[in-house]
Amino acid sequence: MFGALWSSMPGAVELGLLYALMALGVYITFRILDFPDLTVDGSFTTGGAIAAVLITAGYHPWLATAAAFAGGLAAGALTGLLHAKGKINGLLSGILMMIALYSINLRILGRPNVSLLGMDTIFPRVGKDEKWLLLLVIAVVILIIKLLLDAFLKTDLGLALRATGDNAKMIASFGANTDTTKIIGVSLSNGLVALSGAFIAQQGGFADISMGIGMIVIGLASVIIGEAIFGAKTVFRATLAVVLGSIVYRIVVALALRVEWLESSDVKLITAIIVIIALVLPTASRAWSVRKTARKRSRELAGSEGR
User: Fold this and answer.
1) CA–CA gap between residue 270 and residue 263 (Å, rounded)
2) Hey, what domains does the chain have and what are their CATH numbers?
3) Model-level pTM?
4) CA–CA separation, 122 vs 117, rounded Å?
């Protein structure tokens, strides 16, 4: 059992790293902008669809991946425009764009799914002995993207983006255009999500119209788990926590699927349970700590009165 579990670890870590880009995108909207963006479920598929179609058409895999990133940027920008300029509620803007993207993605694919088997992708075919080397290369690529995001968030525009999420009225009083920062933030978020979708499509060997369903929940799970375990006091630490949270989430799912009575179709259920636990545990822990402190103080007061 342990041998089989260890052999599945490289795959779990690899998926965790690839999904980490999607989690970083969710982190931008969920934590930085405080924007409930459901476009993620659609833009993830958009990235996979664009990459798959271009690769099967003979384009270089990295060019197809860059096009997928651009497609995600466009989808996010449209959501931002609906909210900022159209004055539509943020949650509704994301839902509308997610619904629209379903038809757009089906148009891009031309059919429900596109296979990449036998096609050249950014992932070379490697043997078992080279699996960890490929994993290291992927980790380096994800780390570079993470560091580029950190650098962006420390620029004037990045600081304005962070300030918009904290207090939009305050940053507007300093002359910053909060509409622009929101559009840029949501656009960048979905660009990263689409990039993740392009990586997953090439790693899995296909792009499917339903591949993005539930991505927002997986992204939230990665963000919440990462922050709960590793903390988020600085930008560098927060983004690193999101990446590690994505890996931890995938490992937990891999472990859960080793339970005999669970099947691969139960992944969504497992995801929901993990998110519920990640949300409830910190609150329950704080409440227990407060009650413990209160009981301790009451005992100390009772002791002092007895003397």
Assistant:
1) 10
2) 2-306 (1.10.3470)
3) 0.88
4) 13
